[in-house]
Amino acid sequence: MGSERSDDDTWDIASSVGATAVMVAAARAGETERDDALIRDPFAKILVAGAGTGVWETILDSDFNNRMADADPEVAAVLEHMGNYQAVRTHFFDAYFVDAAAAGIRQVVILASGLDSRAYRLDWPAGTTVFEIDQPKVLEYKEQT
């Protein structure tokens, strides 16, 4: 089977779990554009735009979203639900990390960090170290972008 995992698994930003990271960033970018946004991620759109995955860059276009809502309301509803879920999830973990930092935690580990931008967009206290763990090619893409 081609979907089995092994010790030497790897993927880039446009395949496998890397593409999932782009999808999640696209949802954060979409939320950021809303007037009543629950979260703001100024890095998400940049990370999505450079990934070259196609479909997720497309949904950043508000004209596309309007056409999709007219053409297939069910698909539009799924995309909206996905965006809402990611916004709530992002808000929850942002608050968790802010509270942890306020309590004196100065080492943070983000497992399977993908294109998460908390290391850059949250206001960490002096002396805080944020460790991001993910596939090397995913982290390399994020660092270069």
Detailed description of the structure:
By secondary structure, the chain is mainly α. The protein has a single domain (16-144), classed as Vaccinia Virus protein VP39 (Rossmann fold, 3-Layer(aba) Sandwich). The chain contains seven helices and two strands, in the order αααααβαβα. It has helices spanning 16-33, 44-49, 55-58, 62-71, 73-102, 118-121, 136-144; strands at 107-111, 129-133. It has a two-stranded parallel ribbon. It is globular, with a radius of gyration of 16 Å. Keywords: Methyltransferase, Transferase. Pfam families: LCM (PF04072). This is S-adenosyl-L-methionine-dependent methyltransferase. One of its GO terms (biological process) is methylation.
Number of helices: 7
By CATH, the superfamily comes out as Vaccinia Virus protein VP39
Low-confidence stretches: none
- H-E string: HHHHHEHEH
Percent strand: 5-15%
The shape, in one word, is globular
